[in-house]
Amino acid sequence: MAxxxxxxxxxxxxxxxxxxxxxxxxxxxxxxxxTTFEEYQKQRYEAASTIYGPYSxxxxxxxxxxxxxxxASGNSLPAGTPPDxxxxxxxSFIPGVVFDQAPGGQDFGDCINxxxxxxxxDKVSATFVSGHxxxxxxxxxxxxxxxxxxxxxxxxxxxxxxxxxxxxxIRTNAVLGTSEVVVEWDIPTDAVLGNYRIVHQGFYKHIIRxxxxxxxxxxxxxxxxxxxxxxxxxxxxxxxxxxFKEWVEYVM
Length: 252
Prior knowledge:
alpha+beta
C-alpha cells in the first residue's frame, strides 16, 4: 500500500496520464521497511521494521513531490545535509590482518601449480602464493584475469566477476602467515582456440612496511581441439626432503 500511495503521489505531481512511476525497492541504501501510517499502528513485522516512525511514508511523499516537480521544470535543488559518517563508530569482531609471509624460496604471486593445456568445456586451474584477500578487497579492480594472446598482446577474457571464474583463498599456515589462492576457469564451449594465461594480483601485508601490491602470471597454456599431456621432465632433481627422511630412517 505504501508503494501505491507513493506512485500516485508522483503521478499526481507530474500531472500526466502517460507517466508511469516505478518504485525500485533496493537502490544502494538501506532504510528498512516503509509502511503507511495505518499499517504502522498494527506493529506487525513490516511496521515494526519501519525504523523512522509512523510518518516515514509521508516524508518520502513530500520529498518526491519536490524532486519530480524540479525535474519536470528543469530546476535544481540543493543537495541538503549529508548523512553522518559513522564508519569510525562501527564495531567489528573480525580481527585485522597482522602480516603475510611467502614460504621459503617463494615470492608473492609465484604460480606453484600451473594450468595445463585444455579443450573448450574443460576446467583449468592455477595456484598462486598470495597475501590475505582482506588486505584490499579490490572492489574497483579484480583478483584474477584470464588473458588470451592475440597478435603478440594479451587481451582480457574473464575477470573475477565472471560466472566462469572462481577464486578460493586458503590460509596454509596461520602462525607463519602463508596463504595460497586457487584460480579456476570453466572454459566456455565456444571459447576461441589459442594461447591463454591466468593472472592473479592482490596485496600482501608486511608487519613494518604495511601493504604492498603484487602480481603473478601462470605459464602459457594452449586451448586446442585435442588435449595434450604435459611433457615429463627428464633427469629430475631428487627431492631433498625425501632424501633426508630416508637417510634419517636409515641411520636410526
